[in-house]
Design a protein that fits this description.
By secondary structure, this protein is mostly helical. Helix content is 65%, strand content 0%. Helix 2 crosses helix 3, helix 10 crosses helix 11 and helix 10 packs antiparallel against helix 12.
Length: 294
């Protein structure tokens, strides 16, 4: 859409307009045009730079590596930041609506990718937030024509939206359960066994119910261990509930996305994939395009 706008704004788009519009158009083709050799080269270099910058941030967080290569990592961090800053400014210069791009998803991500380094000059330690640069790799779906992955993501999002009410009811029930269990364990075990408060006991209930089991707080009494055993067994059943809910909604969303095969004889829909005959009346089925199923 933005590419169409800039071509329309540049007359015939071949440089016959004024000089400013000409270089803006050429710059746009390089930065946003994924079909040209220059555009592909720019995207490839950009992806490599993003990956390297994320690696630099990760290495800088390791104390041994930071102590030995601090100056080199600090220099690399600023080199990548300056490069991404120049790239961000060029993107704003070549798009038809800079404000609109700045407020878009990728525009915000591009800005967040460079801000932490500058903020670190005033608030030490914030440069680790540069790990957000990894989100810029989402452009790989658009650049390398992986749009079908985005359609699959759309199915997942629709399934999560469809199951949100059921998940909310489920989480509300679990929250009530852990409050009751936590309060009971606080009464049974007491502070002398590590259950120093109801919030601490609720924390234990959550850790146990989710089968994480850190072991920092453990029951000591017979009744406490019996209750803990029940909670552990319940945990396995509870974990399966949201999985089943989302799985059903995923199946429904996938069915809705696929073209429905309708029996022309009886009108029955949603036959099994690859079916040649109607499961109701036995009549031959037609593919969504109108051809007979083989």
């Amino acid at each position: 859409m933005a590419e169409t706008q800039i071509q329309n704004g540049n007359g015939n788009g071949n440089g016959n307009g004024n000089g400013q519009e000409g270089w803006r158009h050429r710059l746009y083709i390089v930065i946003f045009g994924h079909e040209t050799p220059a555009g592909k080269a720019f995207d490839t270099v950009l992806f490599i730079a993003i990956i390297l910058s994320v690696i630099v941030v990760m290495l800088e967080s390791v104390s041994g590596i930071r102590a030995r290569y601090h100056n080199l990592l600090y220099l690399a961090e600023w080199v990548f930041t300056i490069l991404f800053t120049v790239e961000y400014i060029l993107r704003l210069l070549c798009v038809p609506s800079p404000g609109r791009y700045a407020r878009s998803f990728f525009g915000i991500i591009d800005l967040l990718a460079i801000l932490p380094t500058y903020i670190n000059l005033f608030l030490v330690g914030t440069h680790y937030l540069m790990i957000v640069r990894v989100l810029r790799l989402l452009r790989v779906f658009r650049v390398f024509k992986l749009a079908h992955f985005l359609s699959e993501a759309d199915v997942l999002i629709r399934a999560l939206k469809a199951s949100r009410v059921k998940i909310f009811v489920f989480l509300s029930s679990v929250s009530t359960m852990v409050l009751v269990i936590g309060a009971t364990m606080y009464i049974v075990e007491g502070e002398e066994h590590g259950f120093t408060s109801i919030p601490q006991s609720v924390y234990w209930a959550i850790v146990t119910l989710t089968t994480v089991g850190y072991g920092d707080v453990t029951p000591q009494t017979v009744f406490g261990k019996f209750l803990a055993s029940i909670v552990m067994i319940m945990g396995y059943g509870i974990i399966a509930v949201p999985t089943g809910i989302v799985s059903v909604e995923l199946h429904q969303a996938a069915i809705k996305r696929k073209p429905s095969v309708v029996c022309q004889a009886c009108g029955l829909r949603n036959h099994e994939e690859g079916s040649n005959f109607c499961r109701e009346c036995g009549a031959p089925l037609e593919a969504p395009g109108g051809e007979k199923s083989s």
